[in-house]
UniProtKB/TrEMBL annotation:
Signal sequence, renumbered to the chain: 1-21
Protein name: SLH domain-containing protein
Keywords on record: Signal
Superkingdom field: Bacteria
Length: 402
């Protein structure tokens, strides 16, 4: 009997909890109609005392909603639909103005991880609201450069008001990096001034690691912009004809990072049973290509020698993530960019160069039963004295632990 009473009480508690949760959900979410009213009144197209029907009609006139959408206004507002309405209002207020380069980066670099789950007709609005820092989605985890938008998630009244406030006032918006990542402005690393900005995608420990110029022993006091440059300073460095690195970065930095990413993914994904000439050629293309065949052959032969060792030593290395962060570019004689790698040495005899392809490393690569996480500073550059960055590649084969 006691068991039956306890079971009944448990069922009642679960039921009451579910009812309470549903009530809270009902109170916290709003309809599309309510959002249109908030949008039109806050943007001063209508007055709060105007009737809902007149506000909706005015929204149709202003092309904030389409006539065909009027029948859907009783639906709960989702983040995807909010982005559509906000973008239309933004166009109405400010014209069709947006950062086209950032838009391209968000799209091509997949900065919104669930973009393809949304309607094709909504995606442009979602990207524009994301780029403008009005709707920035949710954190996907550290060392992941994309964010989840959650387009089907319902919008609360508080969220709706926040979006509208950001639309109204640019100083209320979240800041985005040129390549479409969310910038954070609180709980910053101790050396935050060394960087152009700090991103939510990385913990402070990623930023607080030493730069190569901080490890270097100089014969005299090093001069900024001559002997070294932090990520915050590197844009001011100049090429031989006075062109700044900032100008060159805008054109080539993402291409350099893609080349580094390919290089590291290949080096940390090796299987002696399947490694072949395709792997060799793909890896070779990430390193600097010289004008003469003999010099190029030296690097190719070195890669081939590693492959023979890998097969002999039965090396299997796998990686689950390689993340190259463009904003970490700095100079220490050579240009460097920071890379996060999560990898595992599954099998293989020997250590160091026998396992991972490299000329020099301050990391002891060994067979482990667990996933390892490391950050490396990879050198970029060119042996062409007249280069403006168009041929920058991985310049040496060192794996320097950041």
């Amino acid at each position: 009997m006691k068991k039956k009473v306890l079971l009944l009480m448990l069922v009642c508690c679960v039921f009451m909890g579910q009812v309470k949760m549903n009530i809270v959900r009902g109170e916290s979410t709003i309809t599309e109609r309510k959002f249109i009213v908030l949008l039109m009144t806050n943007m001063k197209f209508c007055k709060e005392e105007d009737s809902v029907s007149s506000i909706v009609n005015e929204a149709v006139k202003k092309k904030i909603i389409k006539k065909t959408e009027k029948g859907c206004l009783s639906n709960s507002l989702t983040k995807e639909r909010a982005a559509v309405y906000l973008n239309r209002m933004d166009v109405k207020m400010n014209g069709p103005v947006y950062d086209k380069e950032m838009y391209k980066n968000v799209l091509e670099l997949h900065r919104i991880s669930d973009l393809n789950s949304m309607k094709k007709s909504s995606r442009a609005s979602v990207i524009k609201m994301f780029c403008k820092g009005i709707m920035v989605g949710y954190h996907n985890g550290y060392y992941i450069q994309s964010r989840k938008f959650r387009g089907t998630e319902k919008v609360s009244l508080t969220e709706a008001k926040t979006y509208i406030k950001r639309l109204q006032k640019q100083n209320k918006r979240k800041k985005m990096s040129p390549d479409g990542q969310l910038i954070r402005e609180t709980k910053l690393p101790s050396n935050a001034k060394s960087y152009p900005y700090i991103l939510t995608a990385y913990p402070n420990s990623f930023y607080e690691k030493s730069f190569e110029y901080q490890k270097t022993k100089y014969h005299k006091k090093p001069v900024p912009l001559q002997d070294f440059a932090s990520p915050a300073q590197v844009g001011s460095m100049t090429f031989y004809n006075g062109i700044t690195m900032e100008t060159v970065k805008k054109q080539y930095l993402l291409d350099w990072c893609k080349k580094v990413e390919t290089n590291m993914k290949l080096r940390f994904n090796v299987d002696y049973r399947t490694i072949n000439t395709t792997w060799i050629h793909q890896l070779r293309k990430t390193y600097y290509v010289f004008d003469d065949a003999q010099t190029n052959k030296s690097r190719t032969d070195d890669i081939k020698a590693y492959v023979q060792k890998a097969k002999k030593n039965k090396v299997v290395v796998k990686t689950s993530r390689v993340t190259v962060e463009p904003s970490t570019l700095y100079n220490s004689g050579l240009d460097y960019v920071r890379v996060y790698v999560r990898y595992k040495v599954v099998s293989g005899e020997g250590k160091g160069r026998d396992l991972i392809y490299c000329d020099k490393s301050d990391v002891k690569f060994m067979r482990e039963e667990k996933w390892m996480e490391q950050c490396f500073d990879i050198a970029l550059g060119s042996f062409n004295g007249n280069s403006y960055g168009e041929d920058f590649s991985v310049i040496n084969n060192s794996l320097l632990h950041a």
